[in-house]
Amino acid sequence: MPRVSQEHLDSRRQQILDGARSTFAKFGYEGATVRRLEEATGLSRGAIFHHFRDKDALFLAVASEDASEMVETVAERGLVGVMQDLVAEAKQSETRGWLGTQLEVARRLRTDPEFAEEWGARWETLREASVARLRKQRDLGHLREDVPIEVLAGFLQLFYDGLSRYLATGRDEIELESVLRLVEDSVRKH
Amino acid sequence: MPRVSQEHLDSRRQQILDGARSTFAKFGYEGATVRRLEEATGLSRGAIFHHFRDKDALFLAVASEDASEMVETVAERGLVGVMQDLVAEAKQSETRGWLGTQLEVARRLRTDPEFAEEWGARWETLREASVARLRKQRDLGHLREDVPIEVLAGFLQLFYDGLSRYLATGRDEIELESVLRLVEDSVRKH
């Protein structure tokens, strides 16, 4: 029996995540059937579910990828930087589709505590990174000092949620770059 | 054949809207089956679909009720006033459920132009009311003058979208009153 290298496993895992992302984006959570996941990944259900416990785990892993990438961006450019990137990426229908699918799980977050906990954990690292970056900005004298950092972080997070929801619907009537400048201005020291 | 009064028709229509709202809230869009709508309204499908063309029309009518109510609030207290009310109402699970169901239609808004147009029409009156109120605030000297009103309106709308998404998930870690004060501060003249 040949030994399977870690590289091979990682690359197989990434192949599944990429296929899953596009399936969730195109068909939504319920619509991402095992058959469609097989077609998109080019792998059998046996291979897919060897790497991921179930569809939830697959969905949460795709979300984790996003969260990890965003944490890096937040360190350098804050949540506003993440939002600028999101606006650029939302020109692609797969991005809009994936954003939309993430909206569909709102009910599960309310009714399924385990799922909510796992989902929350992905975004907790992002929140911590956002708070850390705000502290850095405050130490550099760039941040307004009349509002607690937790409130600034909550404000940015809610705005990110609204932006991502707006982009998911494919609407295009708001001047997003101008609005993001206002968001940045709202947390800055004057 | 007795004449059916307008009052009777209006009261029947409201009975259906109330039952539909709670069914959509509890079960989501797909889960709001005809059987469940009958149970919640206390009426037969014949009666329900005499007043509303189909489930979409019912869903859009419930959304219209919200939009109309919000337009009144916006005139007096702006979109921030609407958000304050939403925070208070979101203590009720039916409100959170209905907010969640509205998130589920993101995909349809992207893929079904007729549905998107009808949905957009409900919120257009709200947007117009928001812009009108911002103009009034500017005339009174309360509004910042370095940012165009359309950008301020877009900012408030995106924030409303994010707040409503956050409340739909039942999360409770952000100090919403403080964040709303920051939102209000962000559009004010200093």
From TrEMBL, chains A, B:
Stored InterPro entries: DNA-bd_HTH_TetR-type_CS (IPR023772), Homeodomain-like_sf (IPR009057), HTH_TetR (IPR001647), Tet_transcr_reg_TetR-rel_C_sf (IPR036271)
Domain HTH tetR-type: 10-70
Keyword terms, alphabetized: DNA-binding, Transcription, Transcription regulation
DNA-binding region: 33-52
Pfam families: TetR_N (PF00440)
Keyword Amino-acid biosynthesis applies: no
Protein name stated in the entry: TetR/AcrR family transcriptional regulator
